[in-house]
Amino acid sequence: xxxxxxxxxxxAPSGSGKTTIVHYLxxxxxxxLDFSISATSRNARGKEINGKDYYFISDDAFREHIxxxxxxxxxxxxxxxxYGTLKKEVERIWAEGKTVIFDIDVIGGLNIKKKxxxxxxxxxxxxxxxxxxxxxxRGRKTDSEEKxxxxxxxxxxxxxxxxxxxxxxxxxxxxxxxxxxxKLVEKFIK
Length: 190
Known about the structure:
Distance between the termini: 23 Å
Strand content: 15-25%
Number of helices: 7
Helix content: 40-55%
CATH architecture: 3-Layer(aba) Sandwich
CATH class: Alpha Beta
Radius of gyration: 16 Å
Number of strands: 9
Strand order of the largest sheet: 2-7-1-8-9
């Protein structure tokens, strides 16, 4: 891989506010961050755009990338449903002289931290409680009851990994969490 820059990982259970915080940080131009677009073998949902939200690739193409060692990290999240970070995506951002920021699942975030321990700030965004997280998921009105229960069960498991991150950012007030995230990132990239 090219000259190594820094990596900032935001991981969290669904409904913790991680994506909102990452978008806020990306809007702070002085931080000079760029979003790492993940590759996935699933189909686009809603208004998702290839090359902006994800790189949508077929199962076969994904497996070919695995075989060619093209990923920094990848996971088969569900049967034949892969997600991963392409090396060329991180190299593209570093070549622009920017810091890479990830909005990524807990296992993927820890895998990046393991691979680049000195260059990575790994932040676990934690909801104030499972009940509050469930309330936020319901408030989105994007998931079925079954999907919400699945996300809550997954979150209870993911919370066990919070101790493996550099920082646990509890999001009980979004404006405070954004301000805290800004301070953490600013300090790390200086």
